[in-house]
């Protein structure tokens, strides 16, 4: 009798372990599906809806194209799209670099010279409140018709979020850490390099992730105002020609680049910021 | 012999929006080199301000502060002072060993000079050998505080200032660290000034307990703790310890 109970227990334990493991694996598969599969389902739903609206309401091709027409255009006009994406990409990346480096330098000055912050921060806020479509013509007048004004516009739209976040990050140092540095007789430069700058890095990256997409928007808006090439110019051209398929294909190109830029910045963040535990 | 710390008629006043706040008023005391003094008092009695006077973080409004016979800023620049904060204040992006080495990387004059004890030796001293490469967020609160003690000891300071260093820890960890601190004190012969709001901690650690009263912060009484050396945790269960704790509590109630 006793041995029978023992055997039953053992067999229960044996059958339970693989079962629990299978359940755990199934749960993990469901989580992976939710993470990668569901966004695809969302995208597919949108495509089907788009397709359905075009065919059910018999929308004319110059008003809006069907998704498969856009796909065909993407392939057929790949050369045109790629040669127009390149200048936009250069403008966006250069503007991103110029705007963010300027913001980092000025944030550093603001943190170390409060007088400068008090004098100039209100002006920065005022300048930022002017919409980018209003700033763009001013910069085109100032800088001519080449890439320079587009880079300037992309830089200007990156500048403000990074400045605000960087000032916040550089000042996010705990009072105790500052006292520690004082007891260690650290110089202002050492405090900046060893304490303020590393503290600001996570704040900086939240701004850079925003800047990655706004820089692309800035470059495109710049191209709307007097440009022969670039995603922005192509958008204007396609619109005037009622070439809705090319318009949509151009927009897709711009978005794909924007997303790639964002992902690159996020990858850089993952590589740089390793000290913050996951989920914090 | 020059006393480690000597305060004469020291007052500290801060200006605030409404009125002038007196953090410390007419505080005088002398601390011999190599001794262990606990500072005990209710919140607002200026315990932390007193430590910050010695560390040259706060300047006195009146009176004189001498640290090892010098003005506090000279002692600070000569790296005679180690400070342990309530929060371990580690750099989260640096691993344990780099955090301990921080004092060698800032402050000029010590760069390149070999300290008496290596960072590795000090980590072993605080019981963290083998944790050199860990990042602060991978450690428990008690371990982080041990790292900050090792960091404070790296330059071989003559005076160690500790501002409620174990206040945020659980009692079991706190007891263990109390014992380890006493061992470190005996081995390094550093003068220790230890701020706490725990009567038991103050009595167990200190050779003497300086009791401060609040608003304004002032010296109430200097109590000598007459317990056999070296101390071990078991002493806290003795009648003698109970009597001392009761006496401190009685004084604290009048502060």
What does this protein look like?
The complex is a heterodimer of chains A (280) and B (255). With 280 residues, chain A is mostly helical. Helix content of chain A is 84%, strand content 0%. In chain A, helix 3 (78-112) crosses helix 6 (148-170) and helix 9 (231-240) packs antiparallel against helix 10. Chain A starts with a helix and ends in an 8-residue tail after the last helix. Chain B is of the alpha/beta class and 255 residues long. Helix content of chain B is 33%, strand content 24%. Chain B has helices at 47-54, 72-77, 96-105, 119-125, 141-153, 171-188, 199-205, 239-253, and strands at 5-15, 20-31, 36-40, 62-67, 81-84, 159-163, 191-196, 208-213, 218-224. Chain B has a 6-stranded mixed β-sheet with strand order 5-6-7-3-8-9, sandwiched between helices. A 3-stranded antiparallel β-sheet of chain B has the order 2-1-4. In chain B, helix 3 (96-105) runs parallel beside helix 5, helix 4 (119-125) crosses helix 5 and helix 7 crosses helix 8 (239-253). Chain B is globular, with a radius of gyration of 18 Å. Chain B starts with a strand and ends with a helix. The interface between A and B is medium-sized, with 23 and 26 residues.
